[in-house]
């Protein structure tokens, strides 16, 4: 019978061990942990994400109970004290650089020729308990924030950065590399004229919402051949310019759209004002782009509900950061595996089955099917030979 790897081994195959060793060497990831290497650490944290382990003791028990699979994983038996120490001092850059590499691999497998470059930028709060002394408060939550740049067309998170909760979203947005020809969609948290000007000068477009105190003067009304979209109606489309008397200037053409959603809020229609430097798309198309921003909210909801980022395997900042990056690595590995094995299952079902059969030898493409039954034909030495059966 042909040898079959476990589901966990197949999920880890996109990771180039030689490239990962180079990342570890660059960050000196194994400088303080000679016996528990960075690879061992990575395997264990991904296992915690997919298997849903919520404590060091539960993770140690589950991982060591499958010791027969450690050899093919390139790992070894786990001690929770060793894992706790590694969580506290292994450089986060080891996992962050691996995530960036895997994200590029996902892009290579899912990229479609001619697809528009759409980038959604947002952050999600990560609440932490009072036992996490390092956590900061921003007035709403006590914890940290995870910032993500996301392509909804291929379900690919580009960049991930974890910061204290009191760090302004736009400060992380300014660090995002701008791609010429791409369209960046974000909310009011990324309100910064200088950054908007940088996006325009880089040959990219943006769609956002202005703050209520932004003074914009109408320049010209634009025609709207179509005003109706899916779930919304565009009421107005006009070219505008900044009417501020100070030094704040936006040396670029701008459009302001007034959009009314069909869904009611507090029994009343909801009006949304959108601003953009895109002068070619129709008003309905630009409204659809801002509506697409909901996809990154769905990504955050999926990660929080189906990966392990509610309970953390350590109370120090480094442990929390490592676990959050490991969660994103697990997400990307699931997406790569789904494309690589042509899995025709919803993301939720596939993640549940992968976690359920993590240490089972079966093809990823057949996770939702019963295993094949191999039953050897019974051969008798003589037709007169007795056959003993249990009653």
TrEMBL record:
One Pfam family hit: DUF4372
One Gene Ontology molecular-function label: transposase activity
Keyword DNA-binding: yes
UniProt keyword list: DNA recombination, DNA-binding, Transposition
Domain DUF4372 positions: 4-75
Domain of life: Bacteria
GO BP term (any one): DNA transposition
Residue span(s) of domain Transposase IS4-like: 117-333
Keyword hit for DNA-binding: yes
Family membership: Belongs to the transposase 11 family.
Record NCBIfam families: transpos_IS4_1 (NF033592)
Protein known as: IS4 family transposase
